[in-house]
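Is it possible to get an amino acid sequence alongside its tokenized fold?
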Amino acid sequence: MSCESFSNDQIRRGRQNTVIDDVDSRAMGLGGDDERLRPKATRRFQYGNTDISFTGAATLLDFSFENNLSFRENDAVDQFRFRPLVDLNTIFDFPKGYSLFTEFRLRDSIKLQDDTQPSNFFELQVREFFLTAPILETIPIDLTLGRQQFFDLRRWYFTDRMDAARLSAKSGPFDLFTAISTPVLVTNHSLQVFDNITIKKEQMDILFNLDYALTERSFISGYLILGNKHQDRIEPGLLRNENPMWSGIRFIGDEKFKLASSESEFLSHLLKPRIQYWLDAAFVSGSADSKKISGLGIDLGVTAIARKFQAKPYVTFGYAYGSGDSNPENDTDHNFRQTGFQANSGRFGGVVNFDYYGVLYNPELRNMHILTAALGIRPTERSSIELVYHRYAQDHAFARLPRDLRDGPITFSRNPDGIHSHLGDELDLVLGYRGINNVRLRSRTGYFLPGAAYGEQRGSAFFTRLDVQFFF
């Protein structure tokens, strides 16, 4: 839950302030969540008084196929993507608690589409480059300067790289950080080593985040994000001077329960579940040009795991709401908007994470109701099969669909009609396997059936993606 960038010593300790499940997620330290897997130990050598460590990850297979993202019956287009990448990390641990962390990424993106020429785009990026220095020893306070990763456990309010100065403090059950940051701008250049640092950045954010451990496996968090000159992502280019402020709270936990006793072995096992729960609530205020902003976002859910059974079957129910604006002509915009740093990615009871608002449709939580229900099993300790259903409806019918432009891999070529609110239904199949040491296999498939908001002439859409990651 805490936003941390990990030094070599922190890699050995594993994730901080996160809900640990029985997949040994302590092996997923560096960067903080399942999107960024790393081994438990790093390759190290010493140069003078400095320890130097190396680690990284390679995604040699990342293949996806898309069909009919226009949602039209007679206008289906197939598209294939292939995205191999390699991340290389070097960590320097200097005397007196100072450390330097670097991450370089090499990535190639190949796209094949019906009736078009194949495209290929190679990138070399400095993903992270930051120095951490101790400020106080009595109460551990660190200062981190440079390009660094911010994340929350559910990737709901920030998961992004930022050029930032951050102060972090930890004392007992409390974990606090505050930062001033600007986003890392994406350029069209294949070489993105440090060239985008020189680009003028108008957006600036001030971040506060406080975590409190209620138990070893349950936490409460509060956060405040003060934004300056954000862009409106529902109508890109229309409003270019948003100054939003998010204030939010989170309850999240993963506890084992004994609900009652029973003479029946089946009921006895069933009444000893493991419960994972979450509640995210945020209010956004501020201004967008001449308008006030006043929106509410809520995401809550529970996963119940029958942990005593060998296959550990589990069921998940969730509901997410982002307010819409019933009267766009007045002086207050009631649309909730996420921060723009989110990825909306996490796990239910399985061994791999996925886009929990839909692996295909995956909207930003804005002017939106999303109902989710899921069933899953763990055939082995380190594998999972999940079937996930989503139902989407706009809070107020609007002719554009908000998308997470920063992380969404899919671009739709068709907007809702602005008359009907039912956007559609999606069924996802998520497969994960981590039975091989230092390897993760993950498959995500989505089938989307458009609702009345896409008119009478509408056809289903399909998306599937398979990736295999090796970490070292």
Residues 64 and 465 are 4 Å apart (CA to CA).
